[in-house]
Design a protein that fits this description.
Helices cover 34% and strands 30% of the residues. The chain is of the alpha/beta class. The protein has one domain: Rossmann fold (3-Layer(aba) Sandwich). Helix 3 runs parallel beside helix 6 (139-153). The longest helix has 17 residues, at 169-185. It starts with a strand and ends in a 14-residue tail after the last helix. The protein binds adenosine-5'-triphosphate. The site of adenosine-5'-triphosphate has 11 residues, from strand 2 and helix 1.
Length: 242
């Protein structure tokens, strides 16, 4: 279970303080597929980075399964089973896709197993296993490879920041299938996805709506989704792939 207690995140611009996350508290139970949505600039990515340890909150406390992880580094959190997929995935020059999958799995997985992960995300494994994770990969390919690494890791808490960003329609439909499968196979872990996409919001157990760095709504997906569709929160992107 993930607990955020009174989390605030401020930055200083010139002489003034900008409040990005404001006294935010929430709980994500195990076995939950939670989607965080909200208008652009509402603080979603910042919150995801705070959970993953990429940003340090100005104040507040983060607990994972009762353990205070507020001051744990990204690496320590990763070792505790938190994984994070960036909105803009990172490239690793000199590393091949197979190396990245083995690093993620934490063991020497076979070619066949690595192929399975790539096939899951709709990539033809033979074409990609030995490709370098560099700028020759398109944004969409990189995104799918990053999702494959999260499948390989089997983490306790997986966080995806706008997984739909920059991928084409075919990949998007594939992505929905992956998330539906993850949802169906969820065991003691939890999944947090930042998304504006109606198809992703539809499979959420819970939806959290952020506005101005605060939780505006948090409840069962079936209760929140009807409230936010066709409002400012659901955003134009929501129907982009329909
Ligand atoms: N380090 C920083 N310094 C200054 N401003 C920041 C910093 N990090 C985030 N912001 C600002 O905080 C606000 C929230 O940013 P964030 O990326 O968390 O929003 P978001 O809800 O994920 O937006 P989007 O839907 O556009 O991805 C934005 O106005 C952003 O410009």
């Amino acid at each position: 279970m993930l607990e955020l207690k009174n989390i605030s995140f401020h930055v200083t611009e010139g002489n003034s303080q900008v409040d990005i996350i404001q006294d935010l508290s929430l709980t994500v139970d195990n076995r939950k597929f939670v989607v965080i949505t909200g208008p652009n600039g509402s603080g979603k990515s910042t919150l995801a980075k705070i959970i993953a340890g990429i940003e340090q909150p100005t104040s507040g406390q983060i607990l994972l399964d009762g353990q205070d992880i507020t001051n744990k580094s990204i690496t320590e959190r990763a070792q505790m089973g938190i994984s994070f997929a960036f909105q803009q995935p990172v490239r690793f020059r000199g590393l091949q896709v197979i190396d990245l999958l083995r690093l993620a799995a934490g063991k020497k997985i076979s070619h066949i197993k690595a192929c399975d992960y790539l096939s899951e995300v709709g990539l033809c494994a033979n074409d990609y296993l030995n490709r370098e994770v560099n700028s020759s990969l398109s944004g969409g390919e990189l995104k799918r490879i990053e999702i494959a690494t999260i499948l390989a890791r089997k983490t306790n808490l997986s966080i995806f920041d706008e997984p739909e960003a920059g991928i084409d329609l075919w990949s998007f439909q594939n992505l929905i299938r992956i998330f539906e499968k993850m949802r169906a196979e969820i065991e003691e872990s939890s999944i947090i996805i930042i998304s504006h996409q109606e198809r992703i919001l539809q499979i959420a157990d819970e939806i959290i709506v952020l506005a101005d760095g605060r939780v505006q709504e948090h409840g069962a997906g079936k209760d929140i989704l009807p409230k936010i569709m066709d409002t400012e929160v659901s955003m134009p992107m929501c129907r982009k792939f329909q």
